[in-house]
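Reopening this ticket.

The earlier resolution said the output was attached, but the attachment link was broken on my side. Pasting everything inline this time so it's all in one place.
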Amino acid sequence: MLLNRVFKSLLNQPVINDIRYTQVCFHRFRSVPKLRIPEWRFRVERKVKDDNLTSENQKFIKEIVERDFGKQVVHKGVETYESKSLLKVPELEPKTWTKGTIRCGVIAKKLGHYPLWKKDGTRICTTVLQIADNHVIKYIPPNEFDPKERRPLKSYNKKGCILVGAESVDPNTLTANYMGLFKGSGVMPTKHMFRFVVDDVAALPAGTPLNVSHFRVGDYVDVRGKTIHRGFQGVVRRWGFKGGPATHGNTKTHRRPGSLSSGIKSRIWKGKKMPGDMGNCWRILKGLKIWRINTKTNTMWVSGYSIAGNPGDLVYIYDTILPLRQPKEPLPLPTFLGDESKLPEDIYEDSIHKFNDPSIIYEPEK
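Inline output:
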């Protein structure tokens, strides 16, 4: 009886070109990461054309760019433009930081791994992160900022948003629509941008630079990055399955997942560990301690080797949200307002051994 009803329902459906169709709804547990382009499709890239410009015209365009944005220089290991047309940033007044205040974060570049040693000889695994020419582009007050994801109304407090840009680029290589994002900010067009949700007391005006002095040695930070894209992988590599036996009658099931369900379920439950696409997802490492800071190269050493991404990829750093690793002393709010030239070049945590110090100390004989 049930089969007859199914067949009758199929026959009653509309027909297009003598082909009957049904509508099927599929629910995916893990959505495909965005901005993925198949291997067989060429990536669309915008190429800047010279338009058959002569050497004199190219020289003239370069002079116009240097007049408006400044000459191209290398600042703290990053190629940037020594801008002359930045807006005059108003003098900020230091504010009192309280526990739970959300400050602005920074955009950094993962350089690689580097070990450090404590004074007692303990080896520490650290990752070197370089803050790449960060400037505040825009501040959106709480009454104008409309986030996509909201907390429940009972516990939701309106926050502001700071748009931060990193790595200045040649404006000739950008489109007019993208250049419009920097209109009125007085900031050189940047290659990367990111939004940081902050409290209203931590607001920063457009044009404010953000350097490594925004953080302090000994504090804890959270680092967000995108994992390496591994492509389609099996259960052994993707989930760490043991696999089947190698001998004793095993045939073509050495790295198979095994039984998928029992007779009671009679189906595959959502969230089942199966082969599929691996990587290319955002991951956050929380509670990473800052062991060393170099103000000359704008770099910082944080604990751990597990920060997502390849060397050279971008990561986002902000104050940790872990309750047991909150700073004991007030943080600089809204950012460090002192003279950076008076800071030492290398700032170490108290327990870290400095490479310039002797590793063996001889005491005089009594």
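Reporter confirms the inline version is readable. The radius of gyration is 28 Å. Helices lie at 2-11, 55-69, 176-179, 235-239.
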